[in-house]
Amino acid sequence: MERDHVTDDDEGKAVVDSHGEKIGMITEVKSGTAYVNADPGLTDTIRSKLGWGDADQDDYPLEQSRIHTVTDDEIRLKDEF
User: Fold this and answer.
1) Partners of 28 in the beta sheet?
2) Tell me, what's the pLDDT at 43?
3) What is the C-alpha end-to-end distance of the chain, expressed in Å?
4) Residues near 71 by beta carbon (within 8 Å), at least 6 away in sequence
5) What is the DSSP letter of 41?
6) Rounded to an integer, what distance in angstroms lies between the CA atom of residue 5 and that of residue 50?
7) pTM for the full model?
8) Phi-psi group of 51: left, alpha or beta (phi > 0 → left; psi -120 to 50 → alpha; rest → beta)
9) How many whole angstroms separate alpha carbon 30 and alpha carbon 17?
10) Which of 4, 15, 77, 81 has its CA 20 to 30 A from that of 33?
11) Which residues of 20-54 are buried (b: 16+ CB within 10 A; e: fewer)?
């Protein structure tokens, strides 16, 4: 099932650009805003998949308007143009 907004269940999902290239991972969803770590290490990945993620200074908020679709496996971004 595809949607265009994030939920708490999306923590740990890959973020990919419009061409399918992985650019990061959702580390936390807080108040409907997803936070992306552009270079997650193994520890960050495991923590997010377990729901223990917390955004820090290395994480960036993902604007809702940039999200094309959210699937069971990934969050795909819209084209830049």
Assistant:
1) 35
2) 60
3) 26
4) 1, 2
5) -
6) 21
7) 0.77
8) left
9) 22
10) 81
11) eeeebbbbbbeeeebbbbeebeeebbebbeeeebe
- The strand pair at 59-62 and 67-70 is best described as unpaired
| DSSP bridge partners of 3 | 70
Tokens of residue 24, six digits: 């990061």
Domains in the chain and their CATH numbers? Answer: 8-77 (2.30.30)
What does the block give as tokens for 43? 């520890």
- CA torsion angle for 57, 65, 39, 47 (degrees, to 10)? 70
pLDDT digits 0-9 by tens, 37-76: 887 665 666 556 555 556 666 788 998 999 999 999 999 9
